[in-house]
Amino acid sequence: MTVSVEIRDLAITFGQGLSAVRVLPGVSFSVAAGECFGLVGESGSGKSTVLRCMSLLTDIWTGEVRIGGRNVRDIPLKERCRLMQMVFQDPYGSLHPRQSVRTVLAEPLRIHGMDNHEARMNRALTDVGLPVSFLDRFPHQLSGGQRQRVAIARALILEPSLLLLDEPTSALDVSVQAEILNLLNRLREERGFTYIMVTHDLAVVDHMCDRFAVMLHGEVTEVLPRAAIPGNGATHPYARELIAASLEYEGQL
Question: 220 lies in a domain?
């Protein structure tokens, strides 16, 4: 089942009094069911914070997040975990160093009372291009790309409809980045996932996303289709500058 996402006036402030910092002043955008939607911008622009708010890893925000037409705050925790999963940036920090791949994949199945554990774990690893024998390996026995594949397998094993991708390839070598992006594209085609992907790399957006939002100081300056990248079809000055810098950099490679 594919799901749509609606975000309206999402705002969050960290700290109190004179030290309070308004990180997101009021973000709004929508994502169609089955779409890959990108969030781009410089470091500190609030991209990852949007994902943390959506997933309720941070819950002190105001505004509204609706997934499949339902307010995310009204969705029970277990159901929310089945509906939405997140893949984090650092493949070295997102897996417990003392837990085998088998333990990592079996835990969510046990928590959610799902059956056929062995078959589900085997399928999850196969779906991300890893051999079933990796179930008995530990993170220190895996490369960065293999760890990220395990992290994606962990996100897939509960069969979610929405994946939140927080720069899932930025910590990887360039050749491995391409493998992971192609994997994510294939999985979306096969499963009909909805993706929201945070990245600072417009080349990733051009490869993966149908549309993307450019963020600056916690605000969405402009939402653009992927086709706006090659000819720099942005109208907001910052969005135009960001795309121009990316095009210039790509042209120098």
Answer: yes
